[in-house]
Amino acid sequence: MKYKMLVLDLDDTLLRDDYSISETNKSKLLEAQAKGVYVVLASGRPTGAMLKYAEELNLAHYNSYIISYNGAIITDIKNNKSIFEQSLSKEEIHDLHDYSVENNLHIITYKNNEIVSETESEYINIEKDLTGMPIHKVPCFKTEIASSAVKCILLDDPIRLKSFEPHLKKAKTNLSVAISKPFFLEVMPKGIDKAASIQRLAEKLNIKQEEIIAVGNAGNDLTMVEYAGLGIWVDNVTPELRDRADAIVASNNDDGVAEVVDRYILNN
């Protein structure tokens, strides 16, 4: 099979634990693009927190795209233009806030390139470090968020938070819910996930499902790994997901993405 699109999660997949792209991964991804393969970054991160990686991989030169907020936005990197965007309504966000208060969970969303929260948590600080976005702590979350926003994240201790994933999916059937990092329970509009936006982009580019490779490591990557013609985990995949892909490569710290490019694109 000649693959035409390689979709990569960022954190804990393409990026090493220090949030950098290794020189080996970078070199192989530039080779893949020179061969005509679209390299698409697909992350739960906000768009702005992905742009430096798109620039590092020269995606604009190759007319490529990024998928941010777990699929809620698709951006044409060359033209710096959103070609798809869907947000949570104010009412959905306020309802999620009520849910977070009832269940003693932290909640954040995004406004004016800031992380909005009315509580403090070590897990919110992790999102600040990941995105480079400042935290805007507000006295009243619902007063501050008076219009739509792209997504919310519920945050808590990983063991406790995990029990809320099935509960929230059952209670809020009008939403899309997935764990990204163990302490991040991400909530998007219904029908929004990485797979859905990969499909939108593939149709635009006239690329077939079987011509797509997707690589990830966590629950919010599952839809795209199962959707792609070839779905791959890096070795540091969330343990319970390990058998739900076509192949497993080396970890994020051991150039697993370069292994994918070598095995399935350059040597194919």
How does the overall form come out from the CA principal axes? globular
Roughly how many Å apart are the termini?
A: 8 Å
Question: Which strand order does the major sheet show?
Answer: 5-4-3-2-1-12-13-14
Number of domains: 2
Q: Write down how many β-strands occur, each being a DSSP E stretch of 2 or more residues.
A: 14
CATH superfamily of the largest domain: HAD superfamily/HAD-like
Mean pLDDT: 97
- Helix/strand-derived category reads alpha/beta
Tell me the CATH topology of the largest domain.
Rossmann fold
* Rg for CA atoms: 18 Å
CATH class division of the largest domain: Alpha Beta
Low-confidence stretches: none
The second-level CATH architecture of the largest domain is 3-Layer(aba) Sandwich
Count up the helices: 10
Describe the structure concisely for a colleague:
The protein has 268 residues and is an alpha/beta fold. The protein has helices at 10-14, 23-34, 51-56, 90-102, 122-131, 141-144, 158-171, 194-205, 222-227, 256-266, and strands at residues 5-8, 38-42, 65-68, 73-76, 81-85, 106-111, 114-117, 135-137, 152-155, 175-179, 184-189, 212-216, 230-234, 247-249.
